[in-house]
Structure formats: structure tokens, C-alpha cells
Write a structure and sequence with these properties.
With 180 residues, the protein is an alpha/beta fold. 39% of the residues lie in helices and 22% in strands.
């Protein structure tokens, strides 16, 4: 089973994704961390996420590029956090896929989802901003958009978290007209 969790910054998507993994019951829980901490702010974010996961039984695997090179046991439940960082790493890091980012990421997701019992992927909703961008940022948005569309199609569930409230767009708790 694959679940994609999306939402804006600070929406509660990470907490929702962690709770989703825990809801699968006893299992080998693996957290794939994709944020390559470069500065003080990113180190603080990593520390905050580690604190959130504390006591939940996660084994952390850092993977900044080359997702398809990872191997996990079939009974594992995996949380990949987050697709936005992985896409940026593949695009811009020296060991990344560069122009082949979309292909590399999707190959990694397909392999990972075929290996494990449950896969939960966190991605960011960056497309509703009114800001105007240029160059590499536009290319990044295009790549992430293609990746998100593809993983959404592959997923059993797609959940958007808004203000801490999960809204199912595919599978799970589909609420007619978004009103309970």
C-alpha cells in the first residue's frame, strides 16, 4: 500500500504521516530522511523531526540521492520525508540525477513500493504560491509537479493535510463535497 501525504509548510503533514505509519501496528519502521542539512535552519528542522519521531520505533536511513539503491525487508513500513527535498537533491547535488531527476525518483519509488508492506511519502504543496520564479526554480517546480502527479497515480491513498485536518483525495476517507 502506498500513501502520498501533501500539504503546505506547517500544515501537520509530517505528524499525520508518522501517525499513519504507527497505525499499521508492530513492524520494522523505517524513516527515509532526504533533507541534506546545510545550514543552521535545516539542522533545527532535522532536530525537530527527530524529536517528533522519538519513541515511535523508527530506524532512520539518510538518502539524499539514489533512492533506487536502497533495499528494505518486505515486511517494513517506510516513511519517506520528503519528496520535495529528494527532488531538489537529485537536481542540484553533484551525485544527483540532474536532468534525469524525474526518472531517477520515480524508479526509486517504484522499487521501494514493490519491496515494502506500506510506503508513506510526504511531499510539499508548493504550487499555490502567488510568487513568480525563474530558471532553475521553475524547472524544479516542473519536475516536482510531474513526480507528484505520478506518485499520486501510483498511490492507493492521496491525503492533503490543511491546518492539521486530513482531506482524502484518493482512497481512505473520501468525504463528499469536503463536508462531513
Amino acid at each position: 500500500m502506498m500513501t502520498v501525504v501533501t500539504g503546505g509548510s506547517g500544515s501537520g503533514k509530517s505528524a499525520f504521516a508518522e501517525d499513519k505509519i504507527v497505525s499499521f501496528g508492530p513492524a520494522k519502521r523505517i524513516y527515509i530522511a532526504t533533507m541534506h542539512p546545510y545550514d543552521e535552519e535545516s539542522h533545527k528542522r532535522v532536530a525537530r523531526h527527530r524529536k517528533m519521531r522519538a519513541g515511535k520505533g523508527f530506524e532512520t536511513v539518510e538518502c539524499y540521492t539514489g533512492l533506487k539503491n536502497l533495499d528494505f525487508p518486505e515486511n517494513a513500513v517506510v516513511l519517506l520525508e520528503c519528496m520535495s527535498n529528494l527532488a531538489a537533491n537529485e537536481m542540484f547535488e553533484e551525485k544527483g540525477a540532474g536532468e534525469k531527476t524525474v526518472k531517477a525518483v520515480l524508479e526509486g519509488i517504484k522499487k521501494l513500493s514493490s519491496q515494502v508492506r506500506h510506503l508513506v511519502i510526504v511531499t510539499n504543496e508548493i504550487f499555490s504560491e502567488a510568487a513568480s520564479y525563474e530558471g532553475d526554480t521553475i524547472r524544479y517546480q516542473e519536475y516536482l509537479g510531474i513526480i507528484n502527479q505520478n506518485i499520486g497515480k501510483m498511490a492507493d491513498e492521496v491525503v492533503e493535510v490543511v491546518y492539521g485536518i486530513p482531506i482524502w483525495h484518493k482512497g481512505g476517507k473520501v468525504i463528499e463535497n469536503a463536508v462531513e
